[in-house]
Amino acid sequence: MSRALEVAGRLANDAAEVITATAGREHHSGAAHKANPFDWVTDTDRTLERHTRRVLAAEFPGVPVVGEEYGADPDAHRAPYRWVVDPVDGTANYVAGFPWCAYSLALVDASGPVVGVIADPSRAQIYAAARGRGVRANGVPVRVVPRPPAGGLICAELGPDRTASFTRHATAAHAGIRSLGSSALAVTQVALGHAVAAVLEGYREWDVAGAACLAVEAGAVIVDGNGCPDPLPTDAMIVAVPGALDAVLAWWRASEV
């Protein structure tokens, strides 16, 4: 685990340097669309994922990788361990030069994330966690504080049909909603204590695996859309500090469409 954490941290530092040097500069070159005009992929996405895969193959031969740009290695989800990487989470923000994008890397086993590292280049921060070892932000330990949601911020990455209803319930209870455009950083804000909760739908494993490790190790709670504890849900994810989950889950259920 120590070696995995060290290698992941090194890769996150590499990614932070590249993202910092290139953010906002690929709008007219090196960027292309995937499924639609807002679904961006850039040379940076591809380069960072290739670099990550090369280093991991050398350092951890036989451990498969799942990545946003190049997919999953054969039998990755049946292997005892797998690496999960999103080279630039929040690519639309990155392309526009908006300061909410991240590099995310996690080592995952059958019980969920074992190691998680998030690079937050715009804030010059590397967040790292390992199972049973807590969270550090640039080397400083981090732990969430229990609190109710009133007066706090909730990071919501939701579809348009659900956003309006969820926002009405949250604001009626005096909580604020923020949409960052990066699932990894949305969950990370809970782990850091900046937000009381994050509510997500329509994400993929690589978007959230690294940040989920941070959240659990910081003392936050993760449940799926039905309210069942799950370290890495696949349908919907609610991450909350203790004391906020019940209310946020109630707003989620009340906003079902």
UniProtKB/TrEMBL annotation:
Any Pfam family hit? Inositol_P
Q: What is its EC number?
A: 3.1.3.25
Q: Does this entry carry the keyword Heme?
A: no
Tell me the keywords, alphabetical order: Magnesium, Metal-binding
* Any one Gene Ontology molecular-function term assigned to this protein's record: metal ion binding
The reply to whether Magnesium figures as a keyword in the UniProt entry is: yes
* List of residues binding Mg(2+): 68, 86, 89, 207
What cofactor does this chain's UniProt record say it requires? Mg(2+)
The record, for Gene3D superfamilies, names:
3.40.190.80, Fructose-1,6-Bisphosphatase, subunit A, domain 1
Major enzyme class: hydrolase
Catalysis: reaction(s): a myo-inositol phosphate + H2O = myo-inositol + phosphate
Q: Which GO terms describe its biological process?
A: inositol metabolic process; phosphatidylinositol phosphate biosynthetic process; signal transduction
Name this protein carries in UniProt: inositol-phosphate phosphatase
What species was this sequence derived from? Pseudonocardia hierapolitana
